[in-house]
Specification:
The complex is a heterodimer of chains A (176) and B (155). Chain A is α/β, with parallel strands linked by helices and 176 residues long. Chain A contains five helices and seven strands, in the order αβββαβαβαββα. Chain A has one domain: Glutaredoxin (3-Layer(aba) Sandwich), CATH 3.40.30.10. Classes of the chains: A alpha/beta (176), B mainly alpha (155).
Chain lengths: 176, 155
């Protein structure tokens, strides 16, 4: 009994070291998505091309789609853009949610860099962004055929993320 | 010297990161204003973590302050506003996490740790006490008293 007590500090130290070690590989900027497995929030917002054209939840295609939150002030979005264009060429349906941006800037960006989006929603005040729980651009949401959010990726959508995280979910959705 | 000090303090003051309340809002009542102040202090900025939305300069915090203001003005109570934001940003957004199985360790951990330490300390004290006083027999007791008596007589 006595000897066991002297081991206690070592055991506690090892336990603490393991907890802290795990903390090192834990990115605190990644927050759990509160909107996961919930329907995409209702919205009615103008399109990027024209303020008179209103896009609503009903206009979202009834298939597996990506909703990409982007803005011209977001430098990571610039880094992400070529891969989105490539995905669109492969036939992936991407909806653009232009978040707290200037219309003219956003249109010039798409003209210059190519437009991977089937629909461009213009969310100047970030109201849909708030309903989605967006806390930074870029963010990408994966929606299933019923418009339910299946995955959220915060940060640049890289080919690695696409292969390792999104494709497995899409496979399950297609087969299920 | 005084001049250098004043320059020093001016520089410090100009870097102050805690200039809060950047917008001016008009409330219908002091209750509403107090509710707004309480909520913005208790809600956490998802972008610049470790700051509440009252202190944060992030554009997202500004949007959240605006939302809290609008909802407060529309007559929503604290609970409703918190639920609205937790539904969108998760439990992370509040500095007072709700009680549920995932947060039990957070809520009860310190209390459990305190009582655990208390039990160990009491146990150790008891052990020490039982070791400290080796009993002496009657003869030894008599001798001890004799010595003490003699000692007192000398004075």
């Amino acid at each position: 009994m006595k000897q066991w007590v002297y081991l206690l500090p070592l055991v506690l130290f090892i336990a603490l070291a393991i907890v802290l070690w795990q903390g090192l590989s834990n990115d605190s900027r990644l927050l759990p998505a509160a909107m996961l497995n919930q329907p995409f929030p209702e919205f009615a917002l103008p399109s990027l091309a024209s303020s008179s054209q209103i896009i609503t939840t009903k206009d979202l295609p009834k298939q597996i789609i990506l909703v990409n939150v982007w803005a011209t002030w977001c430098s990571s979005c610039l880094q992400e853009h070529p891969f989105l264009v490539e995905l669109a060429k492969q036939g992936v349906v991407i909806i653009g949610l232009n978040y707290k941006d200037k219309r003219a800037d956003a249109l010039a960006w798409l003209k210059q860099l190519g437009n991977p989006y089937q629909l461009e929603i213009f969310d100047a005040k970030g109201s849909l962004g708030l309903d989605l729980g967006v806390y930074g651009a870029p963010e990408t949401y994966l929606l299933d055929q019923h418009g339910v959010i299946q995955y959220r990726h915060v940060g640049v959508l890289t080919p690695d993320v696409w292969r390792q995280r999104l494709i497995p979910i899409i496979e399950v959705l297609k087969n299920g | 010297m005084a001049k250098i000090y004043s320059i020093f303090w001016l520089v410090i003051a100009s870097y102050s990161p805690c200039l809060s309340a950047m917008e001016v809002y008009q409330f219908d009542s002091t209750e509403q204003e107090q509710q707004y102040q309480r909520l913005t202090r208790e809600l956490r900025c998802p972008k610049c973590q470790n700051q509440n939305i009252a202190d944060s300069h992030a554009p997202l915090s500004k949007d959240l302050r605006q939302k809290v203001f609008e909802m407060t003005k529309a007559g929503k109570n604290e609970q409703e506003i918190k639920q609205y934001l937790v539904a969108r940003y998760g439990d992370f957004v509040t500095y007072q996490p709700p009680m549920k199985p995932q947060t039990w360790l957070l809520w009860f951990g310190p209390v459990i740790l305190f009582f655990g330490v208390l039990v160990v300390v009491i146990w150790q004290i008891k052990q020490k006490q039982s070791q400290k006083m080796p009993s002496i027999d009657l003869i030894q007791q008599q001798r001890l008293e004799d010595i003490l008596d003699n000692h007192e007589d000398e004075h």
